[in-house]
Each structure stands twice: as structure tokens, then as C-alpha cells.
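Report of the visiting student (M.T.), summer placement. My assignment was to run the structure pipeline on a short list of targets and document each run. The first record concerns receptor protein-tyrosine kinase.
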Amino acid sequence: MNTWKLLLSILIVLEMVSCILFAMTVNDLQKDESRNRFNIKVFNNHRDKTSSGKYRPKNPDDNLDDNDDRSHNVNYDFEDSRYRNDRAIHAPGSAEEASTKIGQQTITSDMPNGKQKSHAIARQKMSKLRNVTIADGVCGSLDIRNNIRSFEVLRNCRIIEGFLNIILIANITESQARNLSFPKLREITEYLLIYRVDNFTTLRYLFPNLEVIRGDTLFTDYSLMIYEMNQLTEIGMVKLMKISRGGVRIERNPVLCYTDTIDWKSIVLAGALFFATNQHPSKCPACPSSCPDSHCWSEDLCQKSMESICHPLCLGGCFGPTEKDCYVCKTIRHEDMCMEKCPPHLYAFRERRCITALECIKMKPAHLRKDDKAKNWRIFNNSCVTECPVGYDEIIDQNNVTVCKTCVGDACQKFENGGVVRHISDFQPFRGMSVIDGSLEFQIGNSYPTIESELIDAFGAIEEITGYLKVARSSPLTSLEFLKKLRVIRGRKLDMNNASLVILDNSNLSNLFHESQKIELENGRLFIHDNPKLCMSKITKLANMVGITNYTVLEIHPDSNGDKVACDIVNINITVQNKGTTYANLVWDVYEPSEGQNLINYMLSYTETDNPNVTFESNPCSSRKWQIVDVEIPLNNSPNIVISKLITDLKPYTSYGVYVKTLAVRNRSSFRSPTGQSKVILFRTDPDIPTVPANVETIMTTETEILIQWDEPTQPNGPIAYYIISGFIRIEDEDFLSSRDYCKHGIVNEVEKIESPKISFKAIIDDPKSCCKKEVVKYKKFEILCYDNMTTGYIPQGRYNYCDAPRDDKFNIEENFTFEKNFIYNTKPNISNNTYYSFIFNVSGEERSYVLKNLRYYSLYTIAVTACGSTLNNGTELCSLPQYVNAKTERRPDADNVYNVQADVTNDTLVTIKWDPVQHPNGLTVAYIIEYTNTIIKSATKTSACISQGISRKKRNTYDIPNLSPGKYSTRVRSLSLAGEGNWSQEVYFTIGMKDDNTFVATIIVTITCIVAIIIIGFFLLRSYRNKKKQERLIASVNPDYIESKYVRDSWEVSRDNIKLSEELGLGNFGMVYRGVLNGNIPVAIKTIPVNYTEEDKNEFLNEASVMKNFSSFHLVKLLGVISEGDPPYVIMELMENGDLKSYLRRIRDVEPGLDVSRIIRMAGEIADGMAYLESKKFVHRDLAARNCMVSNDLVCKIGDFGMARDIYETDYYKIGQKGLLPIRWMAPENLSDGVFTSDSDVWSFGVVLYEILTMGELPYQGFSNDEVLNHVLRKGTVTIPRNCPEIILKLMERCFRWRPNERPTFIEIVSELESFLGQDFCEKSFYHSEEGIELRNSGLKKVYHNAAQIRFHWGNDSARWVREFEDNVTLLDQTRAGTSRSKIFKNGFQHLGNIAAMEEIPLDSS
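After the run finished, the C-alpha cells were exported:
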């Protein structure tokens, strides 16, 4: 027993200890949780404090939750627009608070000064910004403010599902602003607000790829708002293509330009535009001349138009034609593909991405309004939604999951508090609501293109209003039918004059509720005033329906309503008596005025429409406008006559609506006077001749087929029944062509594409204060074809006839189209050997292309496309003028082959070559080329002769070769046709003067072979001897000269008479450089050599210039010509007004202490693009420096002509001997150690050029001697990168200075890194964006070539030389001519430096 008691006591003690320990643990946890809550509470309370000194209620959305799918606020001052709307609805007096206003939107002021310290502490505790992405690249709503560090939350955002606020950031420099860039961001689903952010001059770097703002939720009525940006000079968001919903408001930006040069109509699909208090356009620079229709984002960024290559599911731009190539999708994006709906097992979230059912259910609850209870996400009809639609109620099922269930009656009612509706953004809380608990006011001031559908969608389900309904000063409203389910207004709270229904001062309201709708007023009266288009009869009908018949003039005044429309209609019968293509004659009965009424005249109104339900009074934002014609009262006032009016200047085959009404006045004693008015009747004018087919073009598909394409006429003037495709071959004039010596002058492509002139009409710019979105006149291709005896004259806009030709309105058109009709109808098919020489085909009016087959190869055809409409009753066909186009078929490869070549040896010195003439050439044969060579002598030059077709015909296709030396020969022949040179014939062999005994020839061959063998052996022995010498460090000339090579004239030769010299520009490598003029109007730079030059100097001068003949790229200085005949010789180059880059930088550094980031990147990109071109051609520059880069008049940097700057900057080179120069400060380690020059070493030099740009032309390694530079570089040293270096340039320089050459980027990769920061003109002119550059990028090669062009060092007794060892695919840029033999050596050698102590050697592959 005692034992049990003891055990029980022990258990009791243990239990008490356990309870104490558990209580202490719980207490500690509660303290930690309380401490964490306190930190967040201090932060939020500080944030929520308003200017009135009170804290706003805490919003559950403000919790920092990684699973929050709706928003992540970095700082919390700025309220979501949907929450702000509650203040407009619930607290109209909140506008009196001390706050900053943006239109109708309220922005709370910044935090009080007294709380700065506590905010800093809280900010330190939350200094590590968290990842805000919801899914891969998807972020929630973001509010960025106060601190530049807040931008980091955007780093990984590709899409923002919500809004983006960037506001109230003061402590930011211009350099920091330019370095902020978020190229991943392409889409914002709600709105973008930028407000009071200092030192942002442009947004081009911040959002370089933002394409779409959807506007699912608006900031008042806007999706894009830029407000009070004091330093912003341009918007620059060049990739912005679409704003799907909502308008654009740009206001109070004092230096902002280019708001009026952007084609906002192509971007904003449904929304108003408001621009005010920005920089005046007259003070802004103009758009670049290259911009289409003068639409641009800045002075160097043109606005890109939407291309038609994108898939229909793309919204904005794309990089290919399929649904996988869209940057942004119109609807759902799943697995990197755009699609109409999600796969069966997934559900659409926010109608833009797919998630699983479990992900939807576990989604964090969303708040539609700030004070509302959070809404759980649920599955409904393959979508993840927060609200059940009308007819469904939400319930909790057995799995504790919210679902939507069908409901009826009162069970389906959904309640919403009342409020004031002023903007589109105020509509959201009322969607799907059936009962308004309170009063509902409409005060909509701004119009919106889709406001009617928006109103029905938001308020169409409302059945009951417990307070009053007020519609006041809402000019966009034309009807109250959007409240289509409203049945009762209870009037528990009344408005002015005890009214529960107030309709006041609505300038366009013409209808009330639907005729079949029954509304009950439980309490209150009516108050209806100042609605000029609302007829009294409709008001009376409403009053009778609600049971108020004893209204007073204080409640409803007859004179303040309906005073601007026709009320109390008396019908007038109107008909169309006759009509034509451009006119209609209308007749109607005479109107008998009522007693006390005086008739003034009739007003005949007509408009283009095919809507049978067209109304008299159009929507104020509709594009339809009624044209009004005043018709006088006839003198004969007999009741038996009718009144007629002829309407002219109508469009052919166009549907019109027309009605007539009276204009009358009443006597003072008459209370109301009726208005005579007809119903709207529709009629269509007769069809007429269409204009020519538009955009006719041809594509040569094969040698016998041409694809012809066209568009429908810009003015079809009726249905197009068919098209006529006719044409004929244009036979070459053989007699005319034979007059040209093609052997001397060569082939010229004589076919030019004929293009129709383009006439553009400037788009009409809307008044920003207008409530309507105007129709924009599109830019169309426009053709005018007139005969010689016609003159163009004034024709009203919209008419099709642009030529003043005599024309009978009864369609006697045969006389006017004689030539065209003869061409069309008299062209008969001519077929020979299954080949069309002329043709005519009819094509269905629905077709837009046709393939012409069985044509003759390489032949020019004139083709006409004619559009034909309906055939009139008299048999006349309404066919347009033909649209002509010339097209030539492709050449046939073997059509110019020469067959049956023979060689007849007449004697020991004369040979006659014979061949058969080409039977069916490409076009015409114009010459023959005969080539022959001695086959015994391996290095014998091939000799060719050219004879014209005329001479060949006279000699019956023979050619005599006289005075041949003895030997064995081969010969071949090919023809020269209008398509170019044909294939060579088979070789034919013949022998001249050789006997069967060839002992003499054999002896010569053996002798020559022995001599060559001795020379080779001697060379290797000499090489072995030299290798035994002590090796010393040698330094090579970067621009070595070659041994003498005779310059040969070519097509680059320019006549000396075409050149005029002016002032001197400077001293070049060979002599003076002058400014000059070529052909009288082309400014050029002209290089010369001194007067006392030698023949060797002349060849060297011209051969170095010949290097440029092999290159053609925009970012290389262009060679324009050479003058080798006469004294002195000239080399004509493209004129670079600003000289070399080094001089330019030093010239401007006294004015500009430094270049901005955009100019630095621009210079770097242009130089890299020029070097990328050289890299693609497998050329190595070996002397890339700022002195060898030239600057044009418009500040474009180009790679200069090579060697020109050596004498100007001789101090930049390490001088060796008398002539050898070496740019040590720009050379890579492998250049100095091993003599290896590749494009990788050029990249090192490019990094040094970037240093020169950043330092405004300072000498690299400032303060180092040349020997110190050698030691520094070979010990892994580089130039010191300046502190002010932009981040992108810093990273690029670090990569350029990699020790291992294969780790450095290629120039094409360098351009790729800089490309997104470069302008539109760079895309149009650069090698990077050329077809060759795109092909190089798509090839996927890391390097353009594989092996280096290595140079070994050898030296003898007095001098040193370089011997180049080339790989097959590598050539050094210093090569003077493309045909220079690879075995040549450099003329100028190197002077060795004596016995210098060996420097520390560091292998290039060391880490």
C-alpha cells in the first residue's frame, strides 16, 4: 500500500513539472509571435497613417505571405485603386482631406517627418527583399516607392498579375535611373502608374520590352498614367504594342516630349487619351526622318507598327508565326503556348494561365474591396473564380470547399452597399449584384468607347435599390436600359425635393427604361430636369408607370426637358423615287402644321449605315454622323403635291439611312407643338466601276511559273465578280541589243520593278477633351491612272474618279477605256510548244492570287490585273482600269550550254575553234567566250577571248587562234546571254608543233624539278641554322608593309575630272588627306602621297587601299574609288566629318566632362558591329584603337581605313628601328608573348577602346612606360576601369580582358548584349541585323573560325622578319590584295632589343 502511495506521489510531481514546462514553452512562443506582429504592426501603422493623423483599418492583404496571389506591397502607403474607389462611394467628403490629387484620384501624402526613424528601423529589419513571384516569372501587384532598392522585386517578373505603382522616389540619381532595367517584364494585367520619381529622363531602359497593359482593373479610367515626372523628357517604351482596356493620361510633366508623335490609336483599343501640361511640341526635337508616318517615341526611336506575321492568338509582338512564338497571349498561355482554353484537367486562372483544381482551392482568399470579407477561390465552368455568377449561390460542400450551386428566388440575391459611380473603375464592386443596400448615384463625366457594354455587365443584374437612384451630369449616357432588371426603388433614403428617382442635367439622355420594364417606387417622388434630349412624353409615361400623376413644375418642368429633339411625332411618308451610283431622289408628302404652328422648312438627314435599327439620335461617341440638307417649303401650298430632293455626291454601292423632319415654331399661347418626322428608310446606291486592284506584286517561283498576288480594290464600288489576269511576253529587240558591245561593257540587269506611287493622308488627331474616340484615316496604297488627254482635278474626298474624263452617267464607258479594253479583251492566248506567249484568264472574285504556268524561261512579261464587278442590265461590264506589273521568269541553268566544240589545227601556228550556236538561250545570246591554255606548263596563264554575237554569226561560230607556241593545249567555250554567263563546254585538246619524240620537253621538266628541289633543301638548312641562335624578344609592326606588288586597275577606277579638292583634313599614313567633292555633289575624303614618291610607294599606297575593296558594311568606312592614273594617285574615301574617335573625345571633353550611358553604349555597339563584320569575313584587324575609329557628322562610329592614323598618333606606338611601330598599350598578352593574332586579341583591344571612350580619350596605362606596360600585361595586368563605368560596360570590359583568349566573347556576342539598348536605326543598318548576321547568329558557332593566324619570330645578323603561317580559313587584315600569295613575307623587319633580362613568362592557359 505504501508503495502505491509513493508511486502516485511521484506521478503527481512529474505531471506538475510537465505542465509548468509546457506553460513556459507556450509563453515563449507567444512572446516571439507577439514580437513579430509588433514589428509588422509598427510598419503598417506608420504606413496607414493619413494626412489627418488617423490610421486606416488594417488590410489583411497587407500581410507578407509568399502564397499571396494578388499583391505584394514593398511599401504600403499607396492604396489599390479598387480600395480607393470605396472612398468615392462611401465617403464623398474624403476629397476634403489634405492630399495630392491626380484627376479624380486621391493619393495620400508621404509619411510624417517624426516617424522617419521608426520607418528606417523597420526598413532595416525588412532590408532583404523577398521573392514575389507567384509562378514562373509571374508576380502579383507591386507598389514601389520611397527607396530605389524597392525596384529589385521586379527583377524576375515577366508578367505582373495586378497593378504596378512606381511613386514618390526622391533619392535617386540620373545614373542610377538609367542603370535600372527590367527587360524580362512584358505584361501588366491591370494598370501602370508612375508618379513623382526624380531624375528619370526616359523609360526606355526601365521597361525595354513591356508590350501589353491589359487594364483588367483601372486607375479611375486609365491603364497608363504618368504624372508629375519633372525630369522625364521621353517615354521611350518602344515595345509597347497594346493597351487592351482603359485610357492613357499623361499630365504635368514639364519637359516631356513626343506624347503627340505616338500613334496611340494603334495602341489603345478602348479608352480615352488625356494629355495636358507637358512640354509644348514646338520646343521638342522632330522625329527621325526614317520613321513611318512620323510616329516616334523619341528623337532616335521610331514607333514600330504591328506586323501581320504574328499568330492570331498573339497580343503584341512575336518572334515567329506560330502560337508558340508570342511574347504575350490574347487569352490563355500554357506550357509556353497560346491557346483558346485550358486542357481538360486544368482551369483558367484570371483568363490567362492554367492551374490545377487543388491550386485554385488553396489560393489565398482575394479582396474585391478593401473592407470586404476575403473571397475564397472556387471552380466554376473550367475557371478559377472568386464570385459565383448570376443564378448561382456559393455554399460549402462536405469537403469544406466553396462551390457554386444553382439557386432561385431570394436565395440568389447578392447585396452590395450603395455609392457614387464616377469612373469605369467604380463598376467592379457592382458586377453580379442584385440588391443595392443604400443609394446609387451615377455621375459619369468621361466617356468611353465601350461604356454601354460595361454598364450592362456591371449593373444589368440589379433588381432592387433600398435608397434612391440618381443619374446626374452623365453626358455619356443615352439610356437607362442598362438597369434592365431593376424592379423596385424603396426610397428608404431620399434625395433633393424628397425624390427617390432623380434624373438631372444629362445632355445626351434620350431614353429611360425599356418599354416592357415595370418599376415600383415604394416611397419618394420624381425629380427630372435639364435633359435636353429626353422627350416629355417619355417622362409622362414613366410617371404614369410609377403612379405619380400629380407632379408639379418644380418636380418635372416641361420646358427643361426635350427642348433639343423632335417630340410628339407626326409621321411623314418618304420614299426613294430613283437612284444611281452617286445620287438618290427622295420624295415625301407635304406636312400640314397644327394650329398655332408655323412651318419654316424641312430638314433631310442621311448617313451611311446598313443597320436596320438605326436611330435618329446617334450615340455621342458613335462614328456615325447625320448629314443634314435644308429643303425649302414649296411655293404651291396645295395638299396634293409632294416634295422632292436630289442628294448627290453619294458613294457607289453604299447603304444609306435617310429621314425627313420639320422645323417649325409655335405661338406663345401654344404649350406644345408636334414635329413632323418620317421613319428612317434604307436604300443602297447602284454599283459602279471599281478602282484598280491594290498592291499587285509578283513572285518568281520557278523558271516557268510566276505567282501574282493582289488585294481587293480600295473602292470596290460593289461586289467583285471576277478578276481578269492577262499579259504577253516582251520580245527582246535583237537589233538594238546587238549595237552594244557586251564583251566590253558586260551585262546590265535592265528589268526594274515598277511600283505604283504611294499617297498618304495624315491621320486626324483627336481633341483630348472630346469624349469620343475618333475614326482614324488609315494609310493606304493609292493609285491614280490617267490617260494622256486627261487632267487631274478636285474631286470630293471618298470619290473614286480621280481623272477629269468625259463620262456619261448612263454607263457609256466603252469610249473612255479604249486602250485598256483592247489590252484586256483583245489579248488572245498564244501557245507554242506548250509555252504561253500571251494569255488571258478569269479568276473568281474571292481569290487574291494566281499562278501563271507554262511561261518561257528568263522572259519579261507585262501582266495586267483587272477587277470586274456586276454586269448591268444593258450588258455593260463594270471593269476597272488594269493594274500593270512587269515580271521576269527565272533563268534555266543549262539553256546557255554550248555543244559540239571542235579544234582544227590548220598549220603549226593557227587553230580554228568551232561550236554549234545556242538554240534556246536565256533571253538572247550576246557573246561567246573562248578560253585556252597550255597544259604542259602547269603555271601557264589561261587566255580568254570574247566575241560578240554579231561577229560570231558572221564567222559562222568560229574563232581563229594564231601564233601559238608549240605545246599541248586545251580549250573550252561558253556563251554569254542576257541572263549572264553559261556553263563551260567540255574541254577539247589539240597539239601545236610537237613531234612524237618529246625528249627536249622532258629534259626541261626534269631540270626545273631539280632546281626547285635544291631551293627547298637550302631553305630548310638555312632555317635550321637560324633556330640555333639565341632567342630574344622581338616586337612586330602592327601594320607591316609588303614587298612590292604591281597595282592593277579595276572597276574602282574614277576619272580625275570627277574630283575636286578643297581644304586639308590632316596627315595620313602615306601623305596628306584632303576634303573634296566627288561627281560635283558627294563630299569625300581624298588620301594622297607626297610629290616625290617612288613607284614602290605608289604601289604600296594603292595596295593598302585595295584592302577596303573586299568590305561593305555600314559601320566600316567605305572606299568610294581610286585614281591610279596620273600624278599624284588618289584614294577616295567616305568623309567622316568629326575625324577619328580619339580626337573627337578629346575635343569635346572640355565641354562635356563625360558621355551619358546611351552614347557610350551606342559607340560601343557600332564599333563592335563593324568588328563583327570583319570577324565574319575571317579578317583580323590587329590595330583596333580609338584613333582608328572614325566619327561621322551624325556621330556614328565606324572602323576607319587601316593604317591611316599611324603618323598622326605616332606616340601611341612603340617605335622599333626606323619604321616599325607597335601599339603595345592596345595589345593582348598572346600578341606580346607568342605573336598570335586572332579575333580574340581584337576583343582585348576593343576593351581598351571602351576605356578610351569612358575616359574621354586618355592614354591607356597612364603613367606607365612601354616596358612597364609589357611587364604589367604579361603578369595578368589590365587597364584600371573608371569608377563611373556603367554596369553593362563594366561587365563587358571584364569579359574582354579575360586572360584566356577563348574565354573572351566574340564581337557578335558583344553586339547581342548591347542590342536591346540601341536604337531603331541600328537595327536597320547594322551587320548584326543583316541577313548575313542573322545567319551567323543562327548557326550557333561560338567562333567564326577555329585556329589562330600565328606569326613566328626569326632574326638574322642585322634585322628580324616575320613569317606568317596561315590556316586555310584565316587571313590577316593587313593583306594588301585579295589575290596576294600566302607565301609572301613582310618587307620591313624588326630590330631586336639586345640582351635584355628574361621577363617572367606566364603561359596563356594558366588560370
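The first strand starts at residue 71 and ends at 73. The chain has 22 helices and 71 strands. I thank the supervising group for their guidance throughout the placement.
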